[in-house]
Structure formats: C-alpha cells, structure tokens
Design goal:
- By secondary structure, the chain is an alpha/beta fold.
- It folds into two domains: about 110 residues, Enolase-like, domain 1 (2-Layer Sandwich), CATH 3.30.390; about 250 residues, Enolase-like C-terminal domain (TIM Barrel, Alpha-Beta Barrel).
- Helices cover about 35% and strands about 15% of the residues.
- Strands 4, 5, 6, 7, 8, 9, 10 and 11 form an eight-stranded mixed sheet that branches. It has a three-stranded antiparallel sheet with strand order 1-2-3.
- The longest helix has 21 residues.
- It binds magnesium ion (MG).
- Magnesium ion binds next to loops.
Length: about 400
C-alpha cells in the first residue's frame, strides 16, 4: 500500500479545526486533525511530498522524515510539529482501518474502555462568582464529573485599570504579574462559589493562563488549598521549569502545565525535575499519538498523571482518546466545545461524549465517519473541502 495524497479541510468550530485526510492507492483513507494555528494547513501541504509514495504503515519513519525534511520550517516545535501531528493522527486511523483494528490496540491495548472528559467552562460576561456557580451546575447537569474554569478571565482586574472606578485597589496590570488583595479575594470567592455549587466529589481544575509571578502564584495556590482542586493550571509563565518547580513545592494544590510544549524533548526537563504534579500535552499539537505515549511513559516513571489539553473536533478528540486508553497514567482529557451545539454532528452516529465519558468501541481506526454535509456547512469560507474547488 502506498500513500497517494494528503488533503485538508478547515472547519470553523470554536477554533479552526484542521482536518487531514491521507489517501492510498488501495482506496483506504485515514482522517486526522491538527490543532489550529497560523500556517498549520499550509505546512500540512508542505509535508505532503515527503510521504507520498511511502507505505502508511511505517508511521515512525514517516514522522521522522517529516521532522528532518522540514527542519528549515522549524520542526522542533510550533506549527510545523502541529501540522505533522495532524498527518500522524490520520496515519494511525489509516493503519487501524487497514488492519481492521482500533487505534488503541496499536498502542498496547486498553487499560480502560471509557475515557473521562472534563468540560472547560466559561462563565459569560459577568464577574459575579454566582454566575460561575450557575454555569458549573449547568455543565454538571449534562453529566460531567470533571470541570475546569478560567480563573483569570473574565476578571475585572485584568482590564485597563483606568476604567476601574477604584483603580488603586487592583495591583494587576498586564505586565507586572502581581495579584493584589482585591484580585485574590475575587479569585478565592470564585473557587469557593464553584466548589459549594458542585460538592466535594467533582474534579475541579482552574486555569491561570501563565499570568503570575512566583510569589503571587504561591500565595494563590495556597489560598485555594481549602477547595481541593484537581489542579491549578499554568499559574506562572511556561518557559522557566525551575520557577514551576518552586511553585509546585510550596503548595499542596497540584500544579499542571504542558499545553505549550512539543515532542518528547520538550517535556524532558519538566518531567525529570518533577516540576509540576500533572502534565497536560495537547496531542494533536505536540507531535501526535505516539509522541504523546512516549511523554506519558516518561512521566509515568515519576508517577506523574497525564491530563491532555484538547480543543479539537470529535476527530482529534476521539483519536487522542484511543491513545489515552493505553496510558497507565491517564487522568482526564479536556472538552472545550460545550458552546458548539453541532460538535457531535460533525460525525455520524451516537453522541461522542455521554455522561462525561467517551466510551470506546471496536470499530477500526478511531471509528468515526465524518458527516460531510455538516463539515461543508461550517467550512472556513474561501477554503477547499479536501481539495475540491472552493465554492464562492
Ligand atoms: Mg490552559
């Protein structure tokens, strides 16, 4: 079997979902997805001539060839690795279909049949902690057992302080990374409101999007200790692993990071220094299923759980779920599209997530069939549907 073509379709979800189709001379195709980002779609097409004519079964070899041949485009990280990830996911789907076996079997089989999903929540425009509690109850009623909120946004104190009627009460401005007394009270009140709304048994994570300085992050993490968080995500900027470690060691609140790292090398120092408690790779962004499994296994030698970041359509999400099933240290995976009512409609058949879990089946590959009508309806305007001429 030989690869004959690589085609893409970019669907306008809450992010542009870059769907990647790898085709062969035997008519078997694989469908993958790359994380969104400027240039990703173009880079998929740049990678195509490297793998056309090759056997799709040699996934490692093909990825290594793409990484090495695209080194000029910057293939140690960033959009190039993300484009390769989309092709890699499509290749595993293709291999699974060719061998009539689910992707999970190709990674050692399943430690679990159901993959726990956490819902990333937004509390709307209001800064009132009660609106966070209300949103939490609403998401829980859809069956989720794990949720995450942004603690930094919307935050009245991250806005231009000149607009604040009491500007001096807020210490925060976008550059100094500080948390003032008023901001701290607001953050703790949000955590308190959500925890009281959902009860003690729900997994609750909070995300800070790399905003704060080390001492402020430590004060925040300690102040949140009574709310028994599953994790506090990215309280400090991601680049300095020693700073991450300092925060992690100063609090009983578990610290999580990893959505900005690429390939196994990108996670090496974080894992070997045990600089956080939980690692959160974005699988269709950081290198793909096999690279994520390598990171998971490395983290597992330090008994660190893995909680993949994920903003993908059902294609990238379920492909990632198959490798999560084969990771000893899998904890929970993100679902970021609670506000996209047609997320499930992008693929045929039963709902992808039921009661907060993806229940894997035994269909070959990732087991999903794209609903082409829905994909066409939401195609990014002016772009091509897997190589067809763009409609006006
Ligand atoms: Mg995050």
């Amino acid at each position: 079997m030989k690869i004959t073509d690589v085609r893409t379709a970019v669907v306008a979800g809450n992010f542009p979902w870059v769907l990647v189709r790898v085709e062969t001379d035997e008519g078997i195709c694989g469908l993958g997805e790359a994380y969104w980002g400027a240039g990703v779609n173009e880079l998929v097409h740049r990678a195509k001539p490297i793998i056309v004519g090759e056997s799709p079964f040699n996934v490692s070899k093909l990825c290594e060839m793409m990484i090495r041949c695209l080194s000029g485009e910057g293939s140690t990280g960033g959009a190039t690795v993300t484009a390769i990830s989309g092709i890699e996911l499509a290749l595993w789907d293709l291999v699974g279909r060719a061998l009539n076996t689910p992707i999970s079997t190709l990674f050692g089989g399943r430690l679990r049949e159901s993959i726990r999903i956490y819902a990333d929540c937004h509390a709307g425009e209001s800064h009132d902690p009660a609106s966070y509690a209300e949103r939490a109850r609403e998401v829980m009623s859809a069956g989720f057992t794990a949720i995450k909120f942004d603690l930094d946004n919307p935050n009245p104190f991250t806005q231009d302080i000149s607009l604040d009627p009491h500007p001096r009460r807020a210490w925060y401005e976008p550059f100094n990374r500080t948390i003032g007394a008023a901001e701290m009270r607001w953050m703790v009140s949000v955590a308190e409101a959500i925890r009281s709304a959902v009860g003690d048994d729900v997994m609750l994570a909070l995300d800070c999007h790399w905003k704060y300085a080390v001492p402020d992050a430590i004060r925040l993490a300690r102040a949140l200790e009574p709310y028994n968080l599953l994790w506090l995500e990215d309280p400090v900027p991601p680049e300095n692993i020693d700073a991450q470690k300092k925060v992690s060691e100063a609090t009983t609140t578990p610290i999580c990071t990893g959505e900005n790292l690429y390939r196994k090398h990108g996670y090496r120092e974080l894992i070997e220094k045990q600089a956080v408690e939980i690692v959160s790779p974005d699988i269709p962004k950081m290198g793909g299923l096999l690279e994520a499994k390598k990171v998971a296994d490395h983290a597992d030698t330090y008994y660190m759980p893995l909680a993949p970041h994920n903003v993908a359509s059902p294609i990238g999400t379920v492909a990632a779920a198959h490798v999560c099933a084969a990771m000893t240290n899998f904890l929970v995976m993100e679902y970021h599209a609670h506000d996209v009512p047609w997320w499930d409609d992008l693929v045929d058949g039963e709902p992808v997530i039921e009661n907060g879990f993806i229940h894997l089946n035994d269909r070959p590959g990732h087991g999903l069939t794209l609903n082409e009508d829905v994909a066409r309806q939401h195609l990014v305007s002016g772009t091509s549907f897997f190589g067809e001429s763009p409609s006006a």
